[in-house]
Structure formats: C-alpha cells, structure tokens
Amino acid sequence: MHQVPTSLSVGVTLALGLVLLAYVRGWVRLWRLQPQAASRSRLAAFLGGVAFLWLAVASPLAGMDHQRLTFHMLQHLLEMNVAAPLLLLGAPFLAFRAALLEVQPLGGFGRWLPSKAVRRLGRWLTHPAVCWLLGTTVVVGWHVPVVLELTLRSPAWHAVQHASFLFAGLLFWWPVVLPWPAVPHWPRWAIPLYLFFATLPCDALSAFLAFCGRVVYPHYLVHAAPGDVSPLADQAGAGALMWCFVTVAYLLPAVLITLQLLSPRRPPARPVVAS
Predict the structure, then answer these.
(1) How far, in Å, CA of 232 to CA of 222, rounded?
(2) What digits encode the pLDDT tens for the residues 41-74?
(3) Cβ neighbours of 1 (radius 10 Å)
(4) What is the DSSP letter of 79?
C-alpha cells in the first residue's frame, strides 16, 4: 500500500501552517488599522482553502491516490477548484502585504510590485485568455497516460504535479474572483462564458475516462486497492466525479455573476478595499 512519506506530510503541514500564520497576522493588522479591508468571510475563505489543500496533499487521502484513480482525481479537483478559489476569496495579497510590510493606503499593482517588468508580467499572466489556456493545459496535460504514469512512479514529479494544479487553479480563478490587486481585462458578462468554455475540455476528458472501455493507466491494474471495485470501474468513477464536480464548480459562480449582472440594485463592481 502506497503512503505519503511522513517527511512530506510533515513538511507540507508545516509550510501550510507558516502560510496560515502569516495570513492571520496580516489579517489581524488589517482588522485593527483598516477594518474595511478585513472581513470574517475573507478569513474563513482562506482558512477553508488551506484546509482543503492540506486534505488533498498531506492527509490520509493523499496516500490513496496510487491505489484508486478516483482519489487521484479528487485530489486534483480539490486543489484546483476548491482550495484555489477559496484562497483567492481570502484576498491573500492584502493580508500578506500587511503581514510583511507597513500598512499603507492601497492602490493597484504600481504601489505594490517593484518594477514595470514585473507589473507587465503580472498583467499578462492574469489575462483571462492566458489563465484559461494554462488551466486547461494543466488539466489535460497531466492526464495524458505517459505523463500521469510518470507522476505515479516519481515522487518528485508528483510534487510538481500538485504544485502545477494549485498554481493553475489560482490563475484560472483569478479573473473570476478578482482579488486585490486584480484589474479586470474583460467585461464581467464574459466571465460566465469563460467558465462555460472551460467545462468543455473537462467534459471531453471525463467522458473518455468513463466510456473508453479499457484501463487507460496501467499503474492501476497492478497497484489497485483490494476490494469489489475493478480498475475499469474505478476509472469510470473518476471520469464521472470529474464531470459532476467541474459542472457544479463552474456553474455556481457563473449563475451568481449572471444574477449580479441582471440585478439593477447590485450592479457588478470590484470589491472596495481600503483607500
């Protein structure tokens, strides 16, 4: 039975604990000095994001991904579509800025990032087209059989896979959440379309896994957990899980944004932070 190395679990847990301490320190400073920039909902969102990230990477769940493709799929979905948007909803850059720097009036990238080159890179990297493309490429690319098999054989590549899913998730949800210091590149009505088109590659991948009729990843033929679920049924379950999870994860924010756009009393606007 494969298990996550104890050193990895402890290391990830300690790293997440340090990140959480830095965030809470910054949130408390904001709450004292600029309370309009620190809300309990943001704190709860960030705490939830860290908890789900730990669940996916360092909990006992992470030790089952070599035995069931369903658990492997659940890890990726939690990292990219639960932990990542929750972390962004926590406005992490506001809190980390307050934790590491003197609390000052907040502006855009120009008052926070050190150089024009970094600001240009940030604007390019957070453009919705780039975010969509990178997110889709990471999801599809890591599920290519030869690539996924590599991550199952190599702990180093498995760690790279986890990191890329989290990074791609943060980028993918950036245009949707628009955390400080994000600047919208597209009109808000385009975001539901952004989310809808993001479901299509996931639907194709999940349908392939569910209905191809053969085990795509040989690793699970050899290392399947004992029980009544065959590797082929496990693979079909992973495909069904991906389809249901992604549909709900992308549909709910698309509906909420659409309702905001259609509401005359609550026009879409970027959340106000400290001035």
Answers:
(1) 12
(2) 999 999 999 999 999 998 887 778 888 999 999 9
(3) 9
(4) I
